[in-house]
Amino acid sequence: MTIEHVSTPSTSVTGKKRSFRDALVRVSQMREFTLILIIVAMFIGMSFASPYFLTWANMKAMLLSFSTEGIVVVGMTMLLIVGGIDLSVGAVMCLAMVFAAKLFMLGMNPWLASLASIGFSGFIGWLMGLCVTRLGLHHFIVTLAFMGLARGASMIITQGTPISLFTLPPEFKFVGQGTLFGVPFSIIIFFVVIIISDFLLRNAKAFRKIFYTGSNEKAAQYSGVNTNKVKLYVTVLSSALCGLAGIIYMSKFGAATPNFGVGLELNIIAAAVIGGASLKGGEGTIFGAILGIALLSVVSSSLILLDVSVYWQEFIKGLILLAAVAADHHLHQKSKAKS
């Protein structure tokens, strides 16, 4: 005669409580959870500090401000995961705008001009990737050089004068200015980019190699991963996304200015690092990076509404970047000590 163990309702409930508690502990330990708490706390604080913060106009302005930059953050996050960095993002965005605007002024269809410009931006990324993989140069030095090259090219093409695009067709302006079901179309593009990139980064074999390369390049090579190829296509993708963001800005403002995006790399790198992308490589998520750019957008909006001086705004953003890098280094050293 066998005695079967029958779980009582009390033990079943206890098990459910324990699993729920364990799940809460795991969620609370996620870096993104801390970011969400900070953003929520800022929302609550600013709702009392300014009556204009929680208005739809301000929420829409914040969404628009970080949605286009968020596209660039996606590429930067992947580049940081693979162990690189890109200081040329603002300059490449600017050159993409200028290049497309110049082609349009020469009579090319704006859609074809935009595709050509995005392709040209990807080509710039390919050149940078070759300098890294073939010449053995570091991403930092290469992208610093290309930042100057792209910015200089924009100045040469425009002669330092903004290109006004009053004759852009309405259907093209819709990309940056139009709305779909009440939602700005540029925000829809942003969500499409992050959904696709997050899915690929989590599931696609080629994109999982980004983590392997950034975590331990030697081990990845021994496992048969062509790490140079991975670095190359990630650099190309990052620059192409900069081109896409530049085209959206051009459509939004109906102009291309040669000094656009100066200092933008500070916001982009800060957002990616705050969101959990490690400067050492091998770590990072798209969701975390988007939370990072959202936090910076909330900070910028709060500083403006509180009438903080522009000079202090840059100072505070610098402090945020420094704190993010310090936290990243501390967490990396802590995890290294545990392992």
Automatic annotation (TrEMBL):
Pfam family, one: BPD_transp_2
Compartment(s): Cell inner membrane
Domain of life: Bacteria
Keywords assigned: Cell inner membrane, Cell membrane, Membrane, Transmembrane, Transmembrane helix, Transport
UniProt-listed InterPro entries: ABC_transp_permease
Record membrane topology: Multi-pass membrane protein
Transmembrane segments: 33-55, 61-82, 111-133, 140-160, 180-201, 232-250, 262-279, 286-305
Similarity comment: Belongs to the binding-protein-dependent transport system permease family. AraH/RbsC subfamily.
UniProt cross-references to PANTHER family, sorted A to Z: ABC TRANSPORTER PERMEASE PROTEIN YPHD-RELATED-RELATED (PTHR32196), AUTOINDUCER 2 IMPORT SYSTEM PERMEASE PROTEIN LSRD (PTHR32196:SF71)
Record text on subunit structure and interactions: The complex is composed of two ATP-binding proteins (LsrA), two transmembrane proteins (LsrC and LsrD) and a solute-binding protein (LsrB).
Function recorded in the entry: Part of the ABC transporter complex LsrABCD involved in autoinducer 2 (AI-2) import. Probably responsible for the translocation of the substrate across the membrane.
Protein name in the entry: Autoinducer 2 import system permease protein LsrD
